[in-house]
Design brief:
Radius of gyration: 15 Å
Helix content: 40-55%
CATH class: Alpha Beta
Mean pLDDT: 96
Number of domains: 1
Strand order of the largest sheet: 4-3-2-1-5-6
CATH architecture: 3-Layer(aba) Sandwich
CATH topology: Rossmann fold
Number of strands: 6
Largest sheet: 6 strands, parallel
Low-confidence stretches: none
Structural class: alpha/beta
Length: about 180
Amino acid sequence: MIIALAGRRIDAPDAKAIRFPLINVDKVKKDLRKFFISARPIALVCSGACGADLLALQVAGDLRIQRRMVLPFEAAIFRSTSVTDRPGNWGILFDTIYETLNKERGIIILNYSVDDKDAFEKTNTEILNQAEDLVEKFNLTKDVTVVIVWEGNPKEKNDTTNHFMQEGIKRDFTVKEIKTLNH
């Protein structure tokens, strides 16, 4: 099985809705680890934002699962707009994972413009495409499981996590949800 993953970033300090509070990082990390151990995936494909992506990449690395990181634009720009702009020491984790995956040729940079309002949805599509490519490469009978790390409620608009899940459903992939809140 190949896991294609997307999920919530850590909440901003002024967030109106609580979706992934920093205090729940250990809970989510533990839940990801438990799922990865039981599912025994060959590879994980996701982006590299603070929160769900980086936690999944860290856990997969600890478990020696092959990893692939897909970024919508150049790493330094992505790091400043999607990693270090939220509470927590995400920059160090991103740098460590990025450096390792870069050596392993596990980074895909799509070179979209930062001004492209569809860049993240296009990145979602590429994550799913990459997961399908890995299924083919490894000649798997079991295919892609889409893992959604979120609180379980779509935002009213511009919800790239929900978009990712809906795209996975359209492709007839199994969907697994991991909750970012305690209830």
